[in-house]
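Format notes (please read before filing issues)

Several people have asked whether sequences and structure tokens are stored in separate files. They are not. Every record keeps both together, in the order shown below: the sequence lines, then the token lines. Line labels are part of the format and must not be stripped during preprocessing.
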Amino acid sequence: MDKVRQNPGVAAILSFVFNGLGQLYNGEISKGLAIIFFSSLSLFVFILGSILIALWLLGKFFFVKWLVLGLALFFISLIAIAALGIYSIFDAYKVASR
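Then the structure lines:
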């Protein structure tokens, strides 16, 4: 039975819309779900970092360590979100091109 060839452009666009969708489109279910999980986790940590920064700026937290923690969570998760997004798009395109 022949494997159905996927359109690389569609796979890349789906991964651009939401990380992991291109992998699901390509039939890589476990890889797609893993990327979706880690992207969601990174987004949660990003929001948590943003909340800590906002609470410190509003004067709810008086210790600088809460600001440092918020900034660390914010920037680490921002880098993770960007890296996962770039990887997801290029991987979906590359696999669909085969």
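For reference, the curators noted about this record: Residues 8-97 form one domain. The chain is about 80% helix and 0% strand.
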